[in-house]
Amino acid sequence: MIIARRRGNDEYAVALSRLADIEHNGTLPTPYRLYSLCAIYRPDMVDVMKWYSVDLTMLPADAASVELGNTHPLQFSQLGAGAVPLPLGLDLKRTTHLSRFVQKWGTLPALLLADLDVPHLQYAFVGTEDWSMDPVLPPGSLVLIDERQHKAEQRAGWASEYERPVYFFEHRDGFCCAWCVMDGERTVLLRRPSPGLPPLIFDKPGEVEMIGQVRGMAMRLDRGLKHRSRL
Q1: SS in 3 state form for 6-49?
Q2: CA angle, residues 164, 149, 108, in degrees to nearest 5
């Protein structure tokens, strides 16, 4: 009852009769009671969830299997990277067959992109229907955002579109990756011209926020094939 009182919710209470049902009759505990039992007996709740065939480390891979059309940010905890140790013998400087080190693809790419240093980094997913920066950032890509960079670099003469910095923005209609040009107080977001998308122009401060600069990317190579097959 102590936890229930602390939380102000009777659902956290675990009666002896309910505990007996859980232990002997296969009754499934509610999330509240599972929390209380973990607080009382001190097991890792992630491990306890596995007893009920709920493996939280599979969440990133399962999330990746559900295609979302819109570009959106990812919480680092969703990637499961904090719970996955870097495999012994993996040299990040060399091209490596990761399947020989990691059984569950989807938990490690964030670590590789982040170069194992994550305090100032965020992650975003380019929507599976977002072709605005393809092929620089293909749909379905996982991108690494450096949140320290809040000012667009202004200069001309980029050797290629791949060299020009790409930034991640939040605006009134959602999120996007784009090149950026500042014109006084006006912010102009440039997408690749091939999809026929006009620039996004924001005239007032506060209409758009730069989350940071795109520093890395993990992508699938079959997105373009799937797209062309539907045309």
Answers
A1: HHCCHHHCCCHHHHHHHHHCCCCCCHHHHHHHHHHHCCCHHHHH
A2: 85
131-141: b (≥16 Cβ within 10 Å) or e: bbbbebbbbbb
- 201-211 average pLDDT score: 89
Does pLDDT of 30 surpass 50? yes
Domain count, the chain: 2
When pLDDT is cut at 50, 70 and 90, the band that residue 210 belongs to is: very high
Furthest C-alpha separation in the chain: 74
**What pLDDT score does 229 carry?**
53
Look at the alpha carbons of 146, 160, 130, 218 in this order and tell me if their dihedral is positive or negative: negative
CATH of the domain at 150: 2.10.109.10
Terminal CA-to-CA distance of the chain, rounded, Å? Answer: 60
- Do residues 177 and 137 make contact, with C-beta atoms less than 8 angstroms apart? yes
Q: Are residues 102 and 194 in the same domain?
A: yes
User: Same structural domain for residues 18 and 43?
Assistant: yes
Domain, as residue range, for 25: 2-54
**Cβ neighbour number for residue 198 with a 10 Å cutoff:** 8
91 and 31 together in one domain:
no
Helix (H, G, I), strand (E, B) or coil at 144: strand
**Cβ–Cβ under 8 Å, residues 150 and 178:** no
Q: What are phi and psi of 152, to 5 degrees?
A: -70, 135
DSSP state of 109: H
Residues 116 and 163 in one domain: yes
Shared-domain flag, residues 12 and 97:
no
